[in-house]
TrEMBL record:
InterPro entries: Cro/C1-type_HTH, HTH_RamB, IrrE_HExxH, Lambda_DNA-bd_dom_sf, ScfR_C, TransReg_Diox_bact_type. Keywords: DNA-binding, Transcription, Transcription regulation. SMART domains: HTH_XRE (SM00530). This is DUF2083 domain-containing protein. It comes from Oricola thermophila.
Length: 475
């Protein structure tokens, strides 16, 4: 038995009320005074070991239940109050503990209402996507975090910022880096701002990729990053200093609602500018066209990672000098979305990206390999897609590395310009396609073996005499 004092007044009161006893009657059965029982129920006295055993014996209850009470509801209540709609309502967890302890049925009812609310929000979101695909403008939206607002702002617009591209080209001319952009950036930071760059071991920077110390004028980079990512972090710091006015102008144009959203957007725009600096527009586009957008050729030619080169492919939309309009999706093995972008905006209405049959989900079983496919949407739209896993920052031996998967796609009509189309099955002029949908909740393909959720637009088929291929068959 734990030596920790157990205050379980509300639980004792529930036991007494369930048995239909007065305090006097229950006190008599436990062999204590009514006043002492009153103090216990008001949490002014703890339960002794002897009294715990007596309660268990007389009322046939589990001691674990007495000791834990409503604690099992705490994680769910915390998750509920972490929702953007409720965040900030409570100063700490104490009130949640009191609610789960004193009124577990009320807490369970609150959670039930919250789950119904979330289900309603999910259905509204699914219906909004469906209406958008059909060309109807909707304004259905739930509570959003600042990061969600920023993601939506970037996903809806083309992933091309002309002012940042021009600034990056001017910066490259100023640096004249040759084959050593990392060295040129370090020299520029030292000469123009008195900033020294130093790479530190993982143990010294366990939680940061990059940190600038204003007192010593030193920029610290974590050694857990690859050389390509170290270069990008230094480039981000440089463009934040060199291109601040241009970045601020782009942030204003996004019309974000709060300071936190603007800070997140600043990082995303600095990341964009860093890529533009590492892979200047015209030279990058020329190599793209010569290599037919072979990402491995691009990363070798410009000394960048696969992820960085793939990101850059979605940015090639300069008027009069545009490339194939690629779009991009990055997810982890659990399906969590990290990044979506597109040369003309991410094609959410036409493509979606949540279908389990897309190769971005299957490549986790083939790390480092590129999987190519041609997919066809229910409305007949066809896309060339290819996916590959990405390795995140590496740590020590005992740390599990982060692995995500990146999917790049474009309209299948561009297949003659893209090297990956040569891996498609079928005839060159008529490749075989895989039928997919935008997401299970808004997809009406019948008999799909990969269906994970029922469609919101169709009633389920509940014929006891017929069993279909999916648990969510519909009529």
């Amino acid at each position: 038995m734990s030596e920790q004092k157990i205050f379980a007044g509300p639980r004792v009161r529930r036991i007494r009320n369930a048995a239909g006893l007065t305090q006097t009657a229950m006190a008599a059965e436990l062999g204590i005074s009514p006043s002492y029982l009153n103090l216990i129920e008001r949490n002014q006295r703890p339960l002794t070991v002897q009294l715990l055993l007596k309660l268990a014996s007389v009322y046939k209850i589990d001691l674990e239940e007495l000791q834990s009470g409503g604690d099992s509801l705490l994680p769910q209540l915390k998750e509920m109050f972490a929702d953007p709609l409720l965040v900030g309502e409570l100063p700490g967890d104490q009130e949640l503990i009191e609610v789960s302890d004193a009124a577990p049925n009320v807490a369970a009812a609150m959670l039930k209402l919250y789950r119904a609310y979330r289900e309603g929000q999910d259905r509204l979101s699914d219906l909004s996507d469906l209406l958008a695909r059909e060309g109807h403008e909707t304004r259905l939206s739930g509570a959003r975090l600042p990061v969600d607002e920023v993601r939506e702002a970037f996903e809806k617009r083309p992933n091309h910022f002309a002012a940042l591209e021009e600034e990056a080209e001017a910066f490259v001319k100023l640096l004249s880096p040759g084959d050593d952009l990392f060295g040129a950036l370090k020299a520029w930071l030292r000469a123009e701002h008195g900033i020294a760059v130093k790479v530190l071991p993982v143990a010294t920077m366990p939680q940061w990729r990059r940190r600038y110390d204003r007192h010593s004028h030193r920029l610290f980079i974590s050694e857990r990053l690859s050389l390509h990512d170290q270069l990008r972090e230094v480039a981000i710091e440089a463009v934040l200093l060199r291109m601040r006015v241009a970045i601020d102008a782009e942030i204003e144009a996004l019309k974000l609602s709060g300071d936190e959203a603007r800070r997140i957007a600043r990082f995303e725009l600095a990341r964009y500018a860093a890529h533009a600096l590492m892979m200047p527009y015209r030279p990058f586009l020329e190599v793209c066209e010569r290599s037919k957008y072979d990402v491995d050729v691009l990363r070798a030619r410009f000394g960048v990672s696969f992820e960085q080169a793939a990101n850059r492919l979605t940015m090639l939309q300069r008027p009069g000098a545009s490339g194939v309009p690629f779009f991009m999706l990055e997810v982890d093995h659990a399906g969590n979305r990290f990044r979506r972008a597109g040369a003309a905006g991410y094609p959410q209405a036409r493509f979606g990206g949540a279908c389990p049959k897309l190769p971005v989900h299957s490549v986790f079983s083939q790390p480092g390999h590129i999987v190519v496919d041609a997919v066809e949407m229910p409305d007949g739209a066809q896309f060339l897609v290819f996916a590959r896993t990405l390795e995140g920052p590496q740590g020590a031996f005992h740390e599990r590395p982060r692995r995500t998967a990146l999917l790049l796609g474009c309209d299948l009509a561009f297949r003659e310009q893209v090297i990956y189309a040569t891996a498609l099955p079928g005839r060159k002029d008529d490749p075989m396609t895989t039928p997919v949908g935008p997401a299970c909740r808004v997809c009406e393909r019948a008999g799909c073996l990969a269906r994970a959720e029922p469609p919101v637009t169709r009633p389920l088929g509940l014929d006891e005499m017929v069993t279909g291929l999916s648990a969510f068959d519909f009529g």
